[in-house]
Structure formats: C-alpha cells, structure tokens
Amino acid sequence: MEIKRHEKPVLVTRSSLPPLEEYVEMLKPIWDSAWLTNMGQYHEEFKAQLKQYLKAENLELFVNGHLALELGIQALKLEGEVITTPFTFASTTHAIVRNGLTPVFCDINDRDYTMDVEKIESLITDKTCAIAPVHVYGNICDVEKIQEIADRHNLKVIYDAAHTFGETYDGQGIANFGDISMFSLHATKVFHSIEGGIVSFKDPELKDLLYQLKNFGITGYESVEYVGSNGKMNEFQAAMGLCNLRHLDGEIAKRKALVERYRERLSGVPGIKLCEENPRVKSNYAYMPVVFDGYRAGRDEIFAALAEHNIHARKYFYPCVNSYECYRGEFSETDTPVAAKISREVLTLPLFAELPLETVDEICDIILNLKK
Ligand code: T4K
Fold first, then answer.
1. What is the pLDDT of residue 371?
2. Residue 187 Cα, ligand 1 centroid: separation in angstroms?
3. How far apart are CA 76 and CA 60, in angstroms?
4. Ligand 1 in contact with 316 (CB < 6 A)?
5. What structural domains does the chain harbor?
6. Is any ligand 1 atom within 6 A of the Cβ of residue 193?
7. d(CA 306, CA 300)
8. Would the CA dihedral through 156, 161, 167, 173 be positive or negative?
9. What is the pLDDT of residues 14-43, one digit of tens each?
10. CA–centroid distance, residue 118 to ligand 1 (Å)
11. 272-295 in b/e burial notation, b at 16+ Cβ within 10 A?
12. What is the dihedral of CA 351, 354, 358, 361, to 10 degrees?
C-alpha cells in the first residue's frame, strides 16, 4: 500500500504541553505578586518537587541546560584537561572550553554510544582534572567503571545528563552519580520548563556557590565575590515545569509504547542497529536512534526518503564535535573512529508522546520497503 505524504510536517519531536487552563491558573499568583524571576515562590516549589522526583538531595535550577553545565563546571574550580566525548550536542564541549579548560576526546563504544571506558585511562595526563561523559540518548554510561577510574586518578566526574531526566540505575536516581550532573529541561526534552536546566551535585558545600554563580557571583547586598553569570530560572518556566511534572509519568508511558513498536518492527533487520537496552536502567524513552550499518540504503538516503513523506528525522549527533569549524585545527575526528562512524550512520526517528502509532508504522514501512 502506498504511504501518503503527510500534509503537516512530522518533526523529530514536539513539545508536550499541559492543558492551557492549567498553566493559566498557575499564572494568577505571578500576576498577584508581580514577582517574575530571581528565585521566586514557584522556583522554590519546583526545586523541592524535583528533589523528590529525581531522588536527589542536592540540586540547583538554571535558566537553561547549557548555562547549568557551564556554571556547574565553574563551581568545581578546575584547571587543565577534561576527558569528554565528541558524540554529543555542541553544549558539552563548549561548556568545557568556555571555562578555559581543554577537552580531550575519548571514543565511544558501539553498543550504546556512551564513552568507551576502556579508552579513558590512556588519555589521562598530569594535566587531567576531570572526566565529562554524556548519557547520550538517555543511555547510562558505565558509571561504576568511570568512578573507579576517577577515584584512582583523583579526577572529578561531570555528567552531561541532559537526556536522562527521571531515569534510574538499579533503582537509584541518575542524579546521584558523579560530582555533578546536568539535566536539560529544554522544550524538546521528555520533561521541560520551556527552557531550563538542573545541576545535581554530590558535595553539599557547592550549594551556595552554584546559587551565587547563577546570580552574577553576588554574595550579599554589597559584595560580589565571583565572576558569575545570569543563569536564573524565571517563574513562568518554573510554573511550566510544575504543570508538566504532574503529567510526566503518562507522557513517558506513551513514549514507551512508541519505542516498543519501533523496536518490534526494526530489530533483527540485517544492517539496522538499535541501542542495546540495559536492564538496570529505568528509561525515559528520550530518543529513538537507529544506526544503518550495511543496510541496503544509507543514512542520508533514508533521511531523504522520510523527508519526501514530510517526515523529518534528525542526524543527532552529526557531525562529531571534534570536526566542528570552531575547533578546526585543534582536534580531529580520526582520533575517535567509532564516534565518526556512528555519527555518519545514525538517524534519530520522530518520537514524542502524541505521535500516532500509525505514523511509527509508516516510518518503519518507508525504511523497510526502500529499494537498493
Ligand atoms: N547537552 C546535550 C547532550 C544536549 O543534547 C543539549 C541540548 C544540551 C547539553 C544543552 O541543553 P539546553 O541548553 O538546550 O537545555 C535541540 C535542543 O534545542 C537542544 O536542547 C537539544 N540538546 C538538542 C539535541 O536538540 P536543535 O537545534 O535540534 O533544535 P530545533 O529548534 O531544531 O528543534 C528540534 C525539533 O523540536 C523541531 O523540529 C520541533 C521540536 N520543537 C522545537 C522547539 C524549539 C518543538 O516541538 N517545540 C519547540 O519549542 O536543538
């Protein structure tokens, strides 16, 4: 049967929104108090609820995920080299570089595309101060091995946990691993506050510093002790986060059903690789990455075939960070061959709570019916 072109574009994701009335109701107290930002009532309430949901003792809120990561790294007061992954969004590396630190790229494994822990130690030098892995697509890194290496070499561990809101590992909130973890609450994420970010941290002493760094480094009415930034989450964001949190479990359940359908249809097909599932992880079903390795059509052909039907997958994450224009001459993707290969073969398929199951079937049909 011929698959019709969609009239409206099917995009890689679509922000979940609460019922409009629910959000409008939340806005009334903001109007009454005229307190719009700078750590208002919703900010505090949101923080308290997030601690519960994430099963995390220590966390701070930020205006977006990137600034959260940048300021989280600043709070650790590091110098030197940070071992990180090139298979990520621009933010991870930029946050390192904007802190005056030097990224050192470690390759990824080809099972779940997180940092290859067997390759970390050979990259450690006397300048290394931290390891900054990414739980990419919500796939949890080998947190035990990474911590063991960090402990042995006295290094900090900074997780870019942008994709992992609400996930657990052996029942433990993922926020509890490493020295800090950053969660993105961007509109495109499983859970969002329009824009937003969280830093969870192990050392409770970081609490005041993180709070001050997101508020220009101000430490009192007449004192500014740090060169901080403006990273404050406003009340409209916090209100959106509070509303969305009420609906989150239902949203994740819908995503789960869609991912299961994708997996049912695409797994076991020669040339198509899906991420290995980790039974220790409770997933949030953030992304649907598919790798085409030796399939009868290449990644770019599949991308184009879907686009002909007005279905727009994305090439997250292509190109690798170590081949960006802004880092040209400094790094090379030939140093991380697995990341370079996967980034040329991966496509993230549309996935969002309101995506109809029939569209998942159409996407799979388009992929599976492609002629050579
Ligand atoms: N670390 C990692 C590993 C990350 O992936 C990210 C962000 C960060 C750090 C930094 O966190 P934030 O500072 O962003 O909190 C998107 C997101 O903007 C970005 O948050 C995300 N990663 C990245 C993977 O994806 P783009 O440039 O692809 O976004 P865009 O505008 O093309 O949107 C993608 C699709 O989302 C659209 O086709 C439709 C849908 N969409 C988009 C927006 C803006 C909506 O449904 N609603 C919206 O409001 O980066």
1. 82
2. 7
3. 14
4. yes
5. 20-242 (3.40.640.10), 247-368 (3.90.1150.10)
6. no
7. 10
8. positive
9. 999 999 999 999 999 999 999 999 999 999
10. 30
11. bbbbeeeeebbbbbbbbbbbbbeb
12. 10
* Residue with the two structure tokens 């946990």: 161
- The predicted model gives 170-177 an average pLDDT of 96
DSSP state string for 230-248: B----HHHHHHHHHHHHHH
- Average pLDDT of every residue of the chain: 97
Q: Give the sheet arrangement for strand 281-282, strand by strand.
A: 172-173, 168-169, 281-282
- Using the predicted structure, report yes or no on whether residue 3 has a pLDDT greater than 90: no
CA dist list (Å): 151 to 83, 157, 203, 370: 15, 9, 15, 49
Residue 167 has pLDDT above 90, yes or no: yes
251 with 218: CB under 8 angstroms? no
Q: Region 344-353: what's the mean pLDDT?
A: 98
Residue with tokens 């599976």: 368
Nearest CA residue ID for atom 4, ligand 1: 89
Cα separation, 353 vs 284, in Å, equals: 11
**What is the reported pTM?**
0.98
pLDDT tens digit string along 101-150? 999 999 999 999 999 999 999 999 999 999 999 999 999 999 999 999 99
The two three-digit tokens of residue 307, written as one number: 């686009």
